[in-house]
Each structure stands twice: as C-alpha cells, then as structure tokens.
Amino acid sequence: MTEHATLEADRKSMLEVQLHPLVVLNISDHWTRTSVMAEKSQRVIGALLGVQTGRTVEIHTSFELATDQEKGQGVVTLDVKYLEDKKNHYMQVFPTYDLVGWYTTGQSLTDADTSLHKTIMRYNESPLLMVMDTTPPATATSLPVYLYETVVQVKNDTPKYSFCSVAYTIESEESERISIDNVAHGTGSTSIATPIKMYRDALLMLQKRVRVVVAYLKGVKEGKHGLNHSVLREINALCHLLPTQSVPSFQAAYEAEYSDVLLISYLSTLTRATNNLSELVEKHSNAYEKRGSGRRPWY
C-alpha cells in the first residue's frame, strides 16, 4: 500500500455489490455504543462477511474488530489473533461466508486506512472498504454508506494501491424485513412514555394553578387584593376536598395503593413485551417454513 489513501473518483468499478440491512444496523450500533461510552464521537472498525461469486459480492453480516492506537501518532493496528478467532467462529456456523472486506466510520478515507487495508489483504486479495458517514448533512436523501474497491496499478515494477467507488444495492430477505420493521417501530416513544408525559404536563399545570391561588391568598392577607368572599369560599371548598395526609393510616393505605398501581403497570408492560416477542418469533418461523428449512438464517 502507499502511504496515503488515494481515491480514483473517475474510475468505475465493475463489481455488483448487494448489501444487507443487518450490516448497516451493526455498524450504527457499534458506533453508537462506542461514542456513548467515550462521551465523544469515536471511529470504529469492523469486518465484513459475505459471499463472492465472480464479480458479485453479497455482504450478509459484520463483526467488530479489536484495535490498538498508538498515542500521539494516530497509528491504528488490528488485533490479528482476535480477527482470526472471530472469523473462524463465524465459518463454523456459516461455512459459505468469507471475509470480503472491512468497515470504518468517518466522512472520507484517511491515511490510517492504508495500513489497515493492507492487514485485511492477508485474508482477501481485493477486500472491500465500507465507510459510514456518522454526521451526514440534514439535506441528505441517500444512505450515508460508501463502498470502495481495491485498485492495483504497477508502475516501475512496483505495485501501487488505490480505491475506487463501488455502487451497491440493498438486498433483504423476508425475515430481515420483519426484524427491521420491529426495530423501526421500537425506536419511537414507548407505550409507557406517552402517559407519563401526560401526567407530567397535568402536574405542572396543577402546580401552576396552585401557585396562583397561594399568591392570591397572600395578596389578600397583605391587603394587596380586595376581599372576595365568593372566591374564598371556593378555595375553602377545594381545600376540604384534599385528603388529610398527616394521618398515619392514610399514609400507609396510600403507599400500598401506589405500590399496587406500579406493580400492575410493570406486569402489563411485561405482558405486552412478551406478546410482541411471541409475534416476532411466529413471523420469523413462518417466513422460514415457507422458504424451506435448508436456507441459511440471516443472523
């Protein structure tokens, strides 16, 4: 490899790449977890697994890679033993899969990508490089994922390596579509968050009205407001509607009822989650019964 990551923008690749959604989800999850733990955006690296038939490459899944970065130098090295162990484990479950490339995050290729790409070339002569832009512009309409193919050119009897962009299509099976649909619906507000927000807004409104009543009573006491017996009677009636919370028996009954309500809420949440999981498993089983037991699983 050369010392710098070179991109040949005017060169088109003849590869036909089919990308499965699971890969995009894995990379997004990897970057999110790493950035949250580090409390800042972190560049992540992983391997791509799939099947290559001629000039057609189908990327099925991916896994994270362990790296070691030298402080102050920006040099990133792969844990080769971890890569080989992880690769062999996948091969035992999916014997048709092979290491077809690797992925990273960022907005463009960097100088560090060359040394990492050279390491991956030990397992694949022409690996693919996938770059996911984790900070796409708000006006972006396409998936912020870019694929690159290795280009080898011999100059003065010396091989030089560069990258060229590769077009790809999203390929998903029925089981993947079911899973992604569940993930998409699970990212919104949950059934618990909505009523909690309603209760919170109601309590804030009640607090605001109580403060208005208290301010009025203080103003009457200090002579700032006129004495209105009708308003005072209404306030007195509202106060008598409130329970006397200083009684120990009331406090014990209140805590018991509050605990019962929480328990019922937790049980209903668990029941809904169990039902959703049961439906997902049933859809997954039906999908593979239709396609035959001989097909490989998507995960």
Strand tally is 11
Order of helices and strands: EEHEEEEHEHEEEEHHHH
- Going by helix content, strand content and strand pairing, the class is alpha/beta
Rg over CA atoms, rounded to whole Å, is 30 Å
pLDDT averaged over residues: 81
Quaternary organisation: single chain
Describe the global form: elongated
* End-to-end C-alpha gap: 33 Å
Strand order of the largest sheet: 1-10-9-8-7-3-4-2-11
- Strand fraction: 15-25%
Helix proportion? 40-55%
Q: Unreliable runs, pLDDT <50, ≥5 residues?
A: none
How many strands, what sense, and barrel or not for the largest sheet? 9 strands, mixed
What is the overall number of helices? 7
Structure description:
The protein has 299 residues and is of the alpha/beta class. The strands form 2 sheets. It has a 9-stranded mixed beta sheet. Strand 3 and strand 4 form a beta hairpin. It starts with 6 loop residues before the first strand and ends in an 8-residue tail after the last helix. The mean pLDDT is 81.
